[in-house]
Amino acid sequence: MKKRTGNELRELFLEYFKNMDHMVEPSAPLVPIDDDSLLWINSGVATLKKYFDGRVIPENPKIVNAQKAIRTNDIENVGFTARHHTFFEMLGNFSIGDYFKKEAVEYAWDFLTNKQYIGFDPDLLYVTIHPEDEDAYRIWSEDIGLEPSRIIRIEGNFWDIGEGPCGPNSEIFYDRGPSYELDSPAGELYPGGENERYLEIWNLVFSEFNHNKDGSYTPLPKKNIDTGMGLERLASVIQEAPTNFDTDLFTPILASLEEISGSRYGRDEAVDTAFKVISDHIRTVSFAVADGALPSNEGRGYVLRRLIRRAVRFSKDLNIKRAFMYELADTVADVMGGFYTNVRERRDFIKEVIKKEEERFLVTLDEGIRIYEGLRDEARKNDSVIKGEDAFRLYDTYGFPYELTQEYAGQDGLSVDEEGFIEEMKQQRERARNARKSGESMQVQSETLAGITEPSEFTGYQSKKEEAVLTHIIKDDNALDSLAETGEVELLFDRTPFYAVSGGQVADKGTIESGDSRLEVTSVYKAPNGQNVHVAKLLSGTINTGETYTLAVSRDERNFIIKNHTATHLLHQALKDTLGDHVNQAGSLVESERLRFDFSHLEGLSDAEIKTIEEIVNEKIYENLEVHISEMPIEEAKEKGAMALFGEKYGNVVRVVDIDEYSVELCGGIHVRNTAEIGLFKIVSESGIGAGVRRIEAVTSRYAADVYKEKEERLNEIAAKLKVKESQVVKKVDSVQADIRELKEENKSLKARRQDEKLSNIDELAETVAGVRVIAAEVPAGSAKELRETMDNIKSKAQDAVIALASQNEGKVSLVVTVPKELTNTVRAGDIMKEMAEAVGGKGGGRPDMAQGGGTDPSNITIALQLAKNHIKSSF
Ligand code: ATP
Ligand code: MG
């Protein structure tokens, strides 16, 4: 057994199966493409579903890949077992209806035991099979010659994720020897049990049944092989490393962490766990961010947030008190960037994202402490126990680590209901597992379309109209020779100008006609073997296979679709020019009336940025740039710097859309010949649609002109209302605003003067209530002090009067009341004030001859003044 590095093992595996005529499929991004059933790519097969369920037939039925995978269901194991990660690499070989069990077993055995490759001692290998899988038993025992005692039957060895292909599996274990038995739970010490001695390295799945919608199982028309071997585990055995973390895939990360923390790995168990957790999580987060995910409060983003928080929490065991994790992303890029180039290319962006999130969490921790203190006070009033569900909420919603809750509670002489917490955690896991199970299923294989192998030529790049022979009529998954019944049907022709939806570009619409027969095409999609399938409504007549029809694409729509498609390419490049190279397409929709482009970027765009982007695109339109479209080998395209769509799978020969070297993209869509055809480009909205993903909607040509026309009409309307020429509008608005300011000032001083006049004429203000002179009025005053001054002023002119004044200022009410000394035996200022203050929602009080108060409800001032008068009336 030769020692090899992780990178060498990956290469060796790919090389081995390449020699066995397998096609190498690149590692797909961790964020699933066109598949909302999965949160993350979690295995090699997850990216190949379209082949497994027959939607697409691969060029070569034998496939090999090294696939990045994220599994969050293993998260609580990470750091505590030798073999679990949240991010790992799965090496897999696959057969789509080609070889089956025997060959799959033979390949695996050869690769593992052949001295030229891994060269394991065969006596250290064990396998498990499904109890009823006699084929597997025979192959292992007879063809391979494995002793029966080393073939273990395990009921759970059946791979079934709901609807779609499924079947028994067989796992291969490596015996690491008795020194690995430590801590294994009783009764678990066998291959397939919960232990570290018998290490599962490879899983071979023999998918031979269709799990149908009704729950029944039927043999699969085309049987598949799906295998997965964990690279890190293989490396740990080959490198004689006690755990995956002691392999060369991890040691550089551990070394960087030693440097950052000043702690040493390999001396203390708790410290080592922290090292493992952090080095695992940094890989996951770095790769996920490189593949377009970003921390947020839901779904995928939430997983990243929790991973970062979990790592930060464990960093406490290393006495780290600052944002640090982002620095490790450099080491991850160094270790892995050779094969997974995007972690290297995007390292700055990755670091920025992680750093921000770490810093945010440090703030969150403070917030968590505040919430904890609330719980503490409550617990102190009750039974001195912090409820399990509260601790869970702290952990789950606020990201406040459970250990911290425990630690604080301990210090405060309280305890935490651990059972309750664990129960909540269990339920959470259950929810996650169910969500995963129900979401993972594939589609049931449909044989009708998969069986059609005659090609259908797509002529739509050059033409919009075509005479074509109808080759297949499919109704409700049945092939027919002719159809007379009106309604929806799927049709295939020997050739077609209709574009099938792909690359964001919508399908063409149009008509199919011959004699009396007339159909309307509503959508077009690609069959498993690549032909365009027309979904159409038969409006009249009969259709027959073998007859010729006129296929006509709706011209007007197509013309606008292609303007928008080329504009989308210009926009993509303009975004990179303006915002930076981290901008990557996250989704695109090209329709006739508008285009929509989603891309990764952290912040909202400023008006200036939007303007710059718009200007760049329009400049490229005005420059009359020619659009060159050509096919070339993918290597050549890469050399030309063609932007490949993230995660898209390309064949060996690719179609390159080159807009005069300004934008060079791999694309199968239809474009204008010259950018001038786009006419005009206008962004109509920019918004955020999720963490770190922005969306731009834009229009071109006539639709862009319409936007300006509408703006012009609005401007004309304003000019008409202002009664000026359009060119004078701004000046006029300025002068109108100046007028308004002036009038406001004038109004204010007029009001003040009127008040003064009113106050100076005491006789006008005063009234007689129950024989007493009373002045009850609202007066202007900027503060309680000003109000008292007004009061003194009035009092000096009317010493015999009971005076109650109110004023309001910014929603607050001030009140003041005086009663002449000689009347205080009958009526007291404090009593009047009490009623007034209550009416305006406040408080007040004072001496019998003088009281002050206030409130917050100015709308009740009139009532308060009336209450004062009523009080006086009833006192005499
Ligand atoms: P285990 O029982 O050890 O958790 P599994 O049965 O869940 O593994 P499979 O789904 O069979 O694993 O995946 C195939 C292979 O991928 C495994 O044999 C193993 O080598 C690797 N693997 C699976 N899960 C992980 C993980 N969390 N971390 C590292 N490698 C893994
Ligand atoms: Mg397994």
UniProtKB/TrEMBL annotation:
Domain of life according to the entry: Bacteria
Cofactor binding: number and manner: Binds 1 zinc ion per subunit.
Catalysed transformations (reactions): tRNA(Ala) + L-alanine + ATP = L-alanyl-tRNA(Ala) + AMP + diphosphate
Enzyme class: ligase
Record-annotated Alanyl-transfer RNA synthetases family profile domain positions: 4-710
Protein keywords: Aminoacyl-tRNA synthetase, ATP-binding, Coiled coil, Cytoplasm, Ligase, Metal-binding, Nucleotide-binding, Protein biosynthesis, RNA-binding, tRNA-binding, Zinc
Pfam families cross-referenced by the UniProt entry: DHHA1 (PF02272), tRNA-synt_2c (PF01411), tRNA_SAD (PF07973)
Residues where Zn(2+) binds: 565, 569, 667, 671
Location of the protein in the cell: Cytoplasm
The protein's Enzyme Commission number: 6.1.1.7
GO molecular function: alanine-tRNA ligase activity; aminoacyl-tRNA deacylase activity; ATP binding; catalytic activity, acting on a protein; transferase activity; tRNA binding; zinc ion binding
GO cellular component: cytosol
SMART domains for this protein: tRNA_SAD
GO aspect biological process, one term: alanyl-tRNA aminoacylation
Entry-linked InterPro entries: aa-tRNA-synth_II/BPL/LPL, Ala-tRNA-lgiase_IIc, Ala-tRNA-ligase_IIc_anticod-bd, Ala-tRNA-synth_IIc_core, Ala-tRNA-synth_IIc_N, Ala-tRNA_ligase, Ala_tRNA_ligase_euk/bac, DHHA1_dom
UniProt cross-references to Gene3D superfamilies, sorted A to Z: 2.40.30.130, 3.10.310.40, 3.30.54.20, Bira Bifunctional Protein, Domain 2 (3.30.930.10), Threonyl-trna Synthetase, Chain A, domain 2 (3.30.980.10)
Stretches of the chain forming a coiled coil according to its record: 708-760
Named cofactor requirement(s): Zn(2+)
Domain notes per entry: Consists of three domains; the N-terminal catalytic domain, the editing domain and the C-terminal C-Ala domain. The editing domain removes incorrectly charged amino acids, while the C-Ala domain, along with tRNA(Ala), serves as a bridge to cooperatively bring together the editing and aminoacylation centers thus stimulating deacylation of misacylated tRNAs.
HAMAP family from the UniProt entry: Ala_tRNA_synth_B
Database matches in PANTHER family: ALANINE--TRNA LIGASE, CYTOPLASMIC, ALANYL-TRNA SYNTHETASE
Family per record: Belongs to the class-II aminoacyl-tRNA synthetase family.
NCBIfam families: alaS (TIGR00344)
Functional summary from the UniProt entry: Catalyzes the attachment of alanine to tRNA(Ala) in a two-step reaction: alanine is first activated by ATP to form Ala-AMP and then transferred to the acceptor end of tRNA(Ala). Also edits incorrectly charged Ser-tRNA(Ala) and Gly-tRNA(Ala) via its editing domain.
Protein known as: Alanine--tRNA ligase
Organism: Salinicoccus sediminis
